[in-house]
Automatic annotation (TrEMBL):
Residues 94-368 form the Aminotransferase class I/classII large domain. It comes from Bradyrhizobium cytisi. This is PLP-dependent aminotransferase family protein. The lineage of its organism: Bacteria, Pseudomonadati, Pseudomonadota, Alphaproteobacteria, Hyphomicrobiales. GO terms for molecular function: pyridoxal phosphate binding; transaminase activity. SUPFAM superfamilies: PLP-dependent transferases. InterPro entries: Aminotransferase_I/II_large, HTH_trans_reg/aminotransferase, PyrdxlP-dep_Trfase, PyrdxlP-dep_Trfase_major. Keywords: Aminotransferase, Transferase.
Length: 403
């Protein structure tokens, strides 16, 4: 199987009617990475924003300058970007601009958890979490979940045991299971957090793409939540920008203090200014809307093809979760999918500790460069699921899992 490089200019990708675009039979369809689909208007909006910044501001200042926590205009842009989820009364002195969620989490792990401390999270969680925890020298412990996310009693049990420093959770279209936590559960988690003094790190990476989803825990209980939202899902991956909203100014200052003189985590002022400009011009909403539409089209295709066999997804979700029917196992399915020209991630990739994982895989529908490619990949998987695993995949094999 030969991966075919996508040489289509970004401005020409994802244009209707994509469904009729040819896809070479040998093209590999990659559902592994969680990148937003490229939307055609992005190029033009970027050029317009740079023009605006050139005429209104000082591009020189943006290229040469930069304050650790981000400029006030950049943070104001952040407040506007987050407003659909958090409302419009965000104190910009509680906002930090970082170069992505991973940097934000490293700062928060250092500040809230500390070396050797324990961080609770969903049993299956954001795939980068294990590596980040390793770098930060913290321990991850997986909480019990059901189809609605973390079970509050599991959180409370862990808090009662002691030794817990914080909870990380992703309650809106969870990665990887797509769970959306209901309001009552968000309220219950906030209540437990307050009673045991265990702060919550809420990762709302996809929140802007689901503006009607249940309110973030940070909106319900801003006093105990460190809210993180990346612009990489709602706008473009290459922006490398994520906003952190601290529970208070004082707590924001304390988190900042140890890293104030370091630059590995800071957002690029120019890109922060581009996003701030997009939030003023309305482009940010238009770009997010275009991503939302593309995600919705792809999710509908996946639901149509795989819904009957138990696909778990939410309308418009960027990724979907596929429990595998017996006799398929994660290993046999991932190997057979590779042979059929599809890359995906098995549940194991998302495990935060050594507890058993479900027999399921995640498909990031947004990664293929066209809707047609996503559709072909889904059709290949549906055809695979119509068959039994090949004999050689039914036994344990020593070849490492390609995912
Ligand atoms: C749960 C979650 N948070 C955040 C991110 C984005 O991280 P970053 O802002 O570093 O691009 C992802 C990307 O896959 C994710 O799945």
């Amino acid at each position: 199987m030969i991966p075919v490089a996508d040489t289509t200019p970004a401005s020409m990708q994802i244009q209707a009617p994509q469904i009729s675009e040819p896809l070479h039979e040998s093209s590999l369809v990659d559902f592994t990475r969680s990148l937003p689909p490229a939307v055609p208007r992005l190029d033009a909006e970027l050029a317009r924003a740079i023009d605006r910044l050139r005429s209104e501001h000082d591009l020189d200042r943006l290229i040469h300058g930069g304050a650790a926590r981000g400029s006030s205009s950049g943070r104001l842009g952040g407040a506007r970007y987050l407003a659909p989820r958090l409302g419009d009364a965000i104190d910009i002195e509680c906002i930090l601009t970082t170069n992505g969620t991973q940097s934000a989490l490293l700062i928060l792990f250092h500040h809230l958890v500390g070396k050797g401390g324990r961080l609770l999270t969903e049993r299956l969680s954001y795939g980068a979490l294990r590596e980040l925890a390793g770098i930060a020298g913290i321990e991850l412990a997986g909480l019990d979940v059901d189809g609605d996310g973390i079970l509050p009693e599991s959180f409370e049990r862990a808090c009662r045991k002691g030794g817990v420093r914080a909870l990380y959770c992703n309650p809106t279209v969870q990665n990887p299971t797509t769970a959306i936590m209901p309001l009552s559960r968000r309220v219950a988690l906030a209540d437990i957090s307050r009673r045991y003094g265990v702060p919550i790190i809420e990762d709302d990476a996809l929140g802007r793409l689901h503006p009607d989803a249940t309110a973030p825990i940070a909106k319900i209980a801003p006093d105990v939540v460190w809210y993180v939202m990346s612009a990489t899902k709602g706008l473009a991956h290459g922006l490398r920008l994520a906003y952190v909203v601290a529970p208070s100014r004082a707590q924001c200052d304390s988190a900042l203090a140890p890293v104030e003189r370091l630059s590995f985590w800071t957002a690029a002022p120019l890109l922060t200014a581009v996003v701030a400009s997009w939030t003023l011009s309305g482009a940010a909403d238009l770009i997010s809307e275009a991503i939302r539409e593309e995600n919705a089209a792809r999710e509908a295709i996946a639901r149509g093809a795989l819904g009957q066999i138990g696909l778990i997804s939410k309308p418009g979700s960027m990724h979907v979760w596929l429990p595998l029917p017996a006799p398929w196992t994660c290993d046999s399915f991932v190997r057979s999918a590779v042979a059929a020209g599809v890359l995906l991630r098995s549940a194991e990739h998302f495990a935060v500790d050594n507890q058993p994982v479900p027999n399921a895989v995640r498909l990031s529908l947004s990664t293929p460069s066209s809707r047609r490619a996503a559709e072909v990949g889904i059709a290949r998987l549906a055809a695979l699921l119509d068959r039994r695993p090949a004999a050689e995949y039914q036994e344990e094999r020593s070849v490492p899992n390609p995912c």
